[in-house]
Amino acid sequence: MLARHMQRLGRDWVAHWDSPQKFCWNSRISNSIRWADHYSWAPYLSTADFTVNWRPPHFFGPWRPPHFFGPWTPPHFFGPWRPPHFFGPWRPPHFFGPWRPPQYWNWQPDNFTHNSSFHLSNPNMKSEGDEPSSKRRRHSGQNDVCSPNEEISSSNQNEAACLSTPPKNEKENTANTRGLIKRHWEYFCHHSKTMKILEDKQIDQNNTEDKGKFDFTVMSYNILSQNLLEDNSHLYKHCRQPVLMWGYRFPNILREIKQLDADVLCLQEVQEDHFGMEIKPSLEYLGYHCEYKMRTGRKPDGCAICFKISKFNLISSNPVEFFRHDIPLLDRDNVGLVLLLQPRFHCKATAAVCIANTHLLYNPRRGDIKLTQLAMLLAEIASVAHQKDGRFCPIIISGDFNSVPGSPLYSFIKEGKLNYEGLPIGKVSGQEQFPRGQRILTIPIWPSTLGISQSCVYEVQQQRQEENTGAEKKEAKLEHTEEIIIAAEKFPSKLQHHFRLSSVYSHYLSESGIPEVTTCHSRSAVTVDYIFYSAAKDDSAAQPGAEDTFDGGLKLLGRLSLLTEQDLWTVNGLPNEHNSSDHLSLLAQFRLIEE
After folding, report:
1. Pairwise CA distance, residues 286 & 355, whole Å
2. Which stretches make up the Endonuclease/exonuclease/phosphatase domain (predicted)?
3. Tell me, what's the pLDDT at 200?
4. Considering only CA atoms, which of 465, 438, 306, 295 is closest in space to residue 373?
5. Residue 593 — φ and ψ, nearest 5°?
6. Domains of the chain
């Protein structure tokens, strides 16, 4: 037996297929014809005369025909019918709060300016001292873990928050305006060895491009691969979720690149699919030629060097893979890229500039791998930048080195030598103040099968160079080589390279001595990004003996200032609404000096 309400349902709604009432689509079917020889609870499909006995579920209430049977009548559970938002003016759902379109919705190329001082906004933060809760917990010594209720609450708030909350009043709007942080251009007056700070990227009269001189700018920027961002989401707990979306981040990154308008771009953490579909087409539209090298492992990001075709011609492009399947030490998939560029004007025909870009291993406890990767990059640079007279063309090395200023790896790049005997592996990069483990670097660090000497050059290349030189130079080099061999036997733990490089940045504020930072997220705020260059002899940062190594050099004209950790936390760290990477961009202006 069926339930009583089911029996009643059947009695009221059984209809014959041929019944005229089935055509009364605009009226409620209240008195349907009952079929003879059929019970009220008969199945929906009757075998006799292909009769259809339709029964709506009991939860529908009084039945109204669907809209496709005729003019549509809304069911009672809809209430008074209102058209959806796409039929008319859009009305935001209640969970959005007051709606404001994201910034990148109105993005247009014409909106860009030539002002190099880009802004960092000051969002409304709930924690004291304008620091995120995770940052405050880290300073207070508490664990960076939320309680379940707190985590759920913060998650809901992040989803509900829009990208920029409108100010409640004029005072709040004024406070947000005052909270903007500018990065200034710092120009160098080499005749007085002083630095001049300008509000905007204006042309300094003392540094104007002289006739016969070639000036150009170089940017190094780790743009934060979206894949790595999602794999390391714990580093971005302080960020609101919308600003972490690639659809929001890329327009910001592209706008910054266009705004700073560098002649050469050295980009790290460039995701392969984003590069092919968005980054490369956008940069080519801006007049750049792009070269790209993806990592050799599973992570789909890599390094890119892009240069303006109006300023340079490409001589050669040389990718460097740090992974070697036959050397257990080199089991990481980091890469580098070395380009040899020729200036298009104001230079002699043989003039060239070597641009290198890399992203070394992050792991703070594998300094042996970092040094070996650096040696491989230096060996490739020595091969590409080497000229017929035995000297090197001017060199720029940029990238994310995952090492802090003053560390052994940093000192090795600048000074050209490193005695690593007894050096703990965890102290090579200086990323950890108290490194775990006390394993010492082996002597030598890498095996001879790598084919790179302790002077960071290819051994085969060194032999060829000796064969191509004259008898006198060859004899002199042999004597010099014997001295190196004797020194290597006496000091087998000594590394060296032929370049005497200078750093564009000093890494500390000149007035207060507060450290500058190039990256800032929930776990740390340090300097790991650099632009090194071969300084000309009249450059204030030139290393002694550089004029004997390089054919000419580079003179640093200016740079885009960096910020301190305190500055960045006043705008909720990185990424934020205006800067869409966890790294700051580095930018320097050079003048090519020829001999």
Report:
1. 20
2. 219-535
3. 57
4. 295
5. -105, 125
6. 211-431+441-457+492-593 (3.60.10.10)
